[in-house]
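Sequence in, structure out. Go.
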Amino acid sequence: MHIVECDACGKKNRVPAAAKGKPRCANCQSPLPWITEADDSSFASVVEASALPVLLDLWAPWCGPCRAVSPAVEQLGHDFAGQVKVVKVNVDDAPATASRFGVQGIPTLIVMHHGTVVERQTGAAPASVLRSWLEQGLKAAARD
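Output:
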């Protein structure tokens, strides 16, 4: 369970890592940014069972480019609240997940919808590039 501040009214809300539907502010009903973490054991419930498309961030704490791109990924979670769920997976703590997606370079960003990879991006990129990439991924997910 994470505490998330509503971007619209500032109210603090509890948001679980896995839930049906989309998180909304208890005060104003605005969509909340859904930014959480997963590991090998929670991946299915947090990512594959998500009703929303997922922006999967495969990263490691020792990776400089991962740390550099993290604020942009989190900002996308805020900007696309109610449209995407951001899930961060530390590849050191989730080797089976990293192997499943054939991660050979980090950060690796993946847009998934109903457990299927829709878009993939490896390496750090500027925020504007990531935004365009995510928009493309969300359009592709909407076609599924």
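Check: The chain has a mean pLDDT of 95. The CA atoms of residues 41 and 94 lie 8 Å apart.
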